[in-house]
Fold each of these.
Amino acid sequence: MKKFFTLVAAVACALAMTAAQYTGQLTVLVNGEGGQQEAQIMLEQNEDGTYTFSLKNFALKFGDNAVGVGNIILPNQEGFASYGYTNIMYVDNVNITPGDDPNIETWIGPDLNPVPLNLFGTFNDQVMSVNITISLAIMQQNINVYFTGINPEAIGGDTSELEARISELEGQVSTLQGQLDQAGTDKETLQNQIDDLNNQITALKTELEGYKNIKYGDVNKDNAVTSADISEVVNVIAGLHNEGGE
């Protein structure tokens, strides 16, 4: 019976690792102009080892205005392992499906199908970087999309607990500072307590800043995707494709 439950737990763990949602910053440029928005990309690993890439409710946002494009879903993408990451590449037409964001009334993507799309993505269980180029010849528009994000579950969840702890310690410092202003002979002890709390706050803020940096693209961790990594991996993948076509 114990072996049975161990097997069930192992299977459940394996299934839990087949899908990951990356949250981060999406930069969208239309003919070289545009801006940034938060976005989520879902990556699912299929039973045959291929991946399904999903960018849902993709929209072109300009200030308070948004033009809905739709869902970009690429099933059965083969992954190439390189330099500690897995990489996917797509160069073909894609049929964009309507999104389901209730704040957007119209989705133009389905009316433009099929849409020429080039995609290169590189990722591990914690971070993902994606470059997408969409050519809308009928609208005389070239759309360039850049995404850098993290998988919060793998990276350690959101920052709410960390921010709450910082706020709690800052409250303690404020209280002790008030006592210090009125203290007599125990000022040194109180000052040491304040200094210790401030050191804890500094360390937590450094950790918080590191999390926000990796979330919004200024990635500075050892396992982060850099532009040099992407360039090098693109060359490797291009070479693999060229060899396969000969």
Amino acid sequence: MQSQIEQQVIYNYTDSDFNPSLSERYNLDVCFATNRIALTVYQKNKIWAFRYLNTAESVFELSNNSFATLLNSLEWFKLPFNQIRFFISSNNFTLVPDALFDASQAKTYLELIHKVKSDDIVLSDSLVNTQIKIVYAIPAFFKKSLELLLGREVSFNHAVAIHFLTAASIETEIQKQCLMVEFHQNYITVSQVVKNEILFLNTFAFEADTDVVYFILSVAEKQKLPATKFKIIIQGDVSASASTVALLKKYIPEVILMKRKEDVEYPLSFREFQDQQFFSTIHCLLCE
């Protein structure tokens, strides 16, 4: 698998007109992923700046002190943005229908599928345009460290909501024979969404390219997608030239790389990476 992760490196992609001294005019979205912290500065449908920091150790496995030190090293946290939102990108989540959801049982729902550590807190979000709750866990010190740094209470959203909104935005006729596949460092999120209805959504950990192909073909068979016609749309931590993509093209009739949205304005520096890369991270603004 050809990963796009390079450890302990900070990348910056900024519009030439971005002025940090006017930060109160901008919004900041922060996404915590397994080995990455990404920050996106935007106004409505214009992205002004994108920055990400890769970490040698999983962000979710850091100690309280290490996490606090990492936050303090990111100077954007010190700017008075109009709004700051926090997203969690992990496979440690489950979906629960609103009709069955009881907030007092959130931890129980999650523990049916995932291990919840003793020092974790369990959170839940409503998935927009559905009657579904996303239930997930984060280290308790995430919330405490951010509140100490910012001097106010903070809340979180799970980034699978961005995946869902992206899948839901695809033309209906394409949705019926298509899977959305999002690549993360060591797992993929696979979904089929038709008219805001989740027909399938799950994550699969992988070690090799063949794992990815197997999981996707298994989902396509389960969803009864036409073997000679179905397609996948790819986004996330994968290059168009990756061996995984080449292998997928051998077994899947049509493999499409996600394109950036036409109604969003991006910095010219975004030409330095491919459209499908970091798609969810830089499009948290979809959750308005």
